[in-house]
Write a structure and sequence with these properties.
With about 475 residues, this protein is mainly α. The chain is built from 18 helices and no strands.
């Protein structure tokens, strides 16, 4: 591992190094950690799929939005504190950055405990709300019970991961997340198959792996130039909660609406996915597989964007607006090119990918068309991802929140309510692709004025 940089060295690097090499250097650990995380998110689906039990596979689809909510709350506090920290470090305000970091971290621990208690208390009702059928319900409760137990350290791990990235220490976050991911992949077959725990084994493997990630990430806060987390710095006052809330709101909207979108897809699949219970379970299972696959495809792109965010925050705080604009344009071009390649590959190997996760012909048929439609429009989401990250990092919470709500909320909810009643199962399959097209149409007029604003400020600063 390279020698940790001091705070002054990080500031110099962020504000002077050429943009392409800087963003790429910051992005590599993020891409790796996001890919590895997505792989171990898919590991549960893969190993449970080997049980040849469509209802058990469907349970992963049902619990997926619950995990998304846990992630949403973690990213809310992580990005909210991380965005603020990067700007504070850009201004060289180390003391306030420490208070922001402690508030985000300890807040996540407390929120995770409350969330776990509420979820366990109303577990059956929660699973039905998430779209479970009666045949899937027992498996969904098994899986969700352990996931809820691990919610406190899952949320806290996300906060630590994000805060380290925004401090310019992406390597530390990559090591912590990657170790947990590899451990999860190793433990899944042990608990699911060798110990015969089935769906419960997948959840136990997940929370054990997340606990190890948490310990490694927390230990990383004592290394090099990372901000130390001290309970005495915990400052739940408006001066610190407000910027965290505003900075994290776009992430909360994006992740929470992603959960809402998945729930609505599950409910639509339950209502329009087929006639027999077996067909309905197949549709729900297929939706879960496609969601995990598209999350995997997006993970590398989001990881690259994570390399852009600390560069954006540092330079915006230092009033180097030209570097912010150049970093955004570089990030957008790389994202679009990568997503174009992913789309082409995805359209080519769709049937093979579905076969990896299930041998049920009904699940394969429903999922293959859904996956093709989403791959076809995937590249145009580059401006949605990059634009949201830029506006969130520079503190434009309103625009960033609107854009973050577009793909899975503002555009998706009307589509999922309209298309399935009109087209039945096909309406469910095409809903996300149609929402992606509408989100692109919203992103363009939101992003262009921000780029123009950065150009004006650059010219004013030069004068």
């Amino acid at each position: 591992m390279p020698r940790p940089l001091s705070a002054e060295e990080k500031y110099t690097m962020m504000t002077t190094q050429p943009i392409p090499s800087l963003v790429t250097r910051m992005a590599v650990p993020g891409v790796i950690s996001m890919l590895v995380t997505s792989i171990y998110n898919m590991a549960d689906t893969f190993f449970i799929g080997q049980l040849n039990n469509t209802s058990a596979t469907g349970a992963i689809s049902i619990v997926f939005p619950l995990m998304t909510i846990i992630q949403a709350l973690g990213f809310f506090l992580g990005h909210g504190s991380g965005n603020t920290i990067s700007r504070q470090l850009g201004k060289k305000d180390i003391a306030d950055a420490s208070r922001t970091a402690a508030t985000g971290f300890f807040g996540a621990c407390l929120l995770g405990l409350v969330f776990a208690a509420g979820g366990l208390l109303f577990l059956p009702q929660l699973m039905r709300l998430l779209g479970s059928t009666e045949t899937i319900l027992p498996y969904a409760q098994e899986y969700a019970r352990y996931i809820l137990i691990g919610a406190p350290w899952m949320m806290a791990s996300i906060v630590l991961n994000v805060q380290m990235r925004f401090q310019g220490n992406a390597v530390f976050s990559m090591v912590g997340i990657s170790f947990g991911a590899v451990l999860n992949i190793a433990l899944d077959p042990l608990f699911i198959h060798l110990l015969g725990m089935g769906v419960s084994g997948a959840a136990v493997a997940t929370i054990i792996s997340q606990a190890f990630s948490f310990l490694l990430l927390f230990g990383g806060t004592f290394r090099g130039g990372n901000i130390r987390l001290r309970l005495r710095d915990f400052s739940p006052d408006m001066a610190h909660l407000k910027p965290i809330a505003l900075g994290g709101l776009p992430s909360l909207c994006r992740q929470a609406l992603g959960s809402v979108a998945t729930i609505m897809m599950n409910v639509a699949a339950r209502s329009y996915g087929g006639i027999t219970p077996a067909d309905i379970d197949a549709a729900v299972a297929a939706i879960g597989i496609v969601n995990r696959m598209m999350q995997f495809c997006a993970s590398a792109i989001i990881g690259f964007g994570q390399g852009f965010q600390p560069v954006c925050g540092f330079n915006y705080g230092a009033k180097l607006f030209g570097r912010v604009r150049k970093a955004f344009m570089f990030t957008l071009r790389v994202m679009f090119a990568a997503m174009l390649v992913i789309s082409a590959v995805g359209l080519t190997v769709t049937d093979t990918v579905m076969f990896w996760f299930t041998q049920d012909p009904a699940v394969m048929a429903f999922g293959a068309l859904t996956l093709r439609l989403q791959c076809a429009v995937f590249p145009i989401q580059a401006i949605v991802f990059s634009g949201n990250m830029m506006m969130q990092t520079i503190g434009m919470a309103g625009r960033a929140s609107l854009l973050s709500m577009a793909r899975n909320g503002v555009c998706f909810i009307p589509v999922i309510l309209i298309l399935p009643p009109l087209f039945g199962a096909l309406g469910v399959q095409m809903a996300q692709a149609c929402a992606d097209v509408l989100a692109f149409c919203l992103a363009v007029p939101l992003v262009i004025p921000v780029l123009n604003m950065l150009k004006r400020r650059e010219e004013e600063t030069a004068k």
